Amino acid sequence: MRVETGQVLDVDRLPAERGAEVVLGRVLMLVDAGEITCGTPVVEGAQVVAKVLSHGRQRKVTVGKFRPKKHYHRKVGHRQPLSRVRIERIDTPDRDASASRTAVDADDVTGGTGRGA
Questions:
Q1: Looking at CB atoms within 10 Å, which of 24, 48, 70, 90 has the fewest?
Q2: Which residues touch 30 (CB under 8 Å, ≥6 apart)?
Q3: Given phi > 0 = left and psi -120 to 50 = alpha, else beta, which region is 71?
């Protein structure tokens, strides 16, 4: 997914306590003030650091099964566990930490389940 510093988003549940800092995914591409850095396949030394704000669950998704003329009805619900995180910074080995950056995480390419806030 595409992230920027200060962005708040929901991701699959992380095994971290509330308030902890976590390092997210592999960085595939960086955009820094018009300068684009593409990884092969990842940008070496780059990482996205986020702070866990809270844990929760997504809205319920209801799934129903039905077979006509067989008296078969099933209804099942599912709520995906999520963690809400805020992107604190995007670190790179050769650039100033205060710069405004945008990073593309590996979930975009691999079909991850990152959800916007």
A1: 70
A2: 36, 37, 43, 46, 90, 92, 101, 102, 103, 104
A3: left
The pTM for the full model equals: 0.73
Alpha helices in the chain (DSSP H): 107-110
What does the alpha-carbon distance between residue 62 and residue 115 come to, in Å, rounded to a whole number?
19
Q: Tell me the residue type at 86.
A: R
Query: What are 9-40's pLDDT values in tens digits?
Result: 999 999 999 999 999 878 999 888 888 888 88
Contact 24, 105 (CB under 8 A): yes
Contact 103, 27 (CB under 8 A): yes
Measured CA distances, 76 to 9, 61, 62, 73 (Å): 27, 8, 6, 10
Rg of the chain taking only CA atoms, in angstroms: 19
Minimum mean pLDDT among 4-13, 68-77, 106-115: which range?
106-115
Based on the structure, what is the number of domains in the chain?
1
